[in-house]
Amino acid sequence: MNMKKSKVTLNHGAGGRQMGLLIRELIVEKLSNGILERLDDSAILKNNLSAGRIAMTTDSYVVSPLFFPGGDIGRLAVSGTVNDLTTSGARPYALSLAFILEEGVSFETISTVVDSIAKAAKEAKVLIVTGDTKVVEAGKGDQIYINTCGIGFIEDDALQISSHNLKKGDVIMVTGPIGNHEIAMLAARKGVDFDMSSVESDVAPLCLPMQKVLVKAKQLIHAVKDPTRGGIAGVLLEMSEHSQACIEIKESAIPIDKGVHAVCELLGFDPLYLANEGKFVIACEESAVAFVEEFFKDAKVIGKVSAQAQAQGEGVKKGVFLEVLSGGIRRIAPLETTQLPRIC
Q1: What are the chain's domains?
Q2: What is the pLDDT of residues 168-185, one digit of tens each?
């Protein structure tokens, strides 16, 4: 199969010989494992747990362009899925991988994306165990869309990690500088004139360092969120609503890279709402801070849970409040408009 010259045709989605070649030579060969190679209609997985819970998530990826500073749609698909599983305290185990390909996309492009998927899956120590491929006519897609499903195991029944589980006195942490992914997408898509060469997407699987945190911190971790679309503002508002809690954060404590800050100043973006693909927002007891900082070297405490309703109907001023640099207080509101579409 000549990767550089070949392109997807409608025949590659028709269920015949050409579809078989594409799946076997362009996808399965790169993601090879004994489960996937069977090419059955469903994957049979061993449950090695005598106890515990199963976590499951699904996601779709329509990012444009496919390749951007720091990553691509393949790395994004694996990272986003395993990170969603990790937010429940699960150890990601296996993913499904479904492609929707546009007629005319080159085999070389697909091969590069699958290579990236294989690399990210190896980093995350997860298996790609089943999948699907469909082809749509030219002009009715945008090269490659990906859908995933992920499953993982929560091995410690004592872990209760949820946005519904915040407690008064919890500290709020972010595991590193915010906003890099959305600004990298802006650079890739808009071709902005000023220098953004230092800004790359933070896209990465975070399951392994988070698992190490949980081994030490255990029940001290109350909530973990993946601040993708809507940024850290979006997930903090969700935490506040779900837990009937008041969250206070400080602008001076929020880590932002210089390049991201410069773009926000110039274009009027609020970094709190910018998407991230390799960060967690964590609510935990103060005694867990050192464990988070041990495995996330750029992690910072950015605020606290100042109040939380102990009973249904208890009057607590819920919401997210930002202490700005000047010392005033700003209430964080839900995002009303799209800052940049198709960023994941």
Answers
A1: 10-154 (3.30.1330.10), 171-331 (3.90.650.10)
A2: 999 999 999 999 999 999
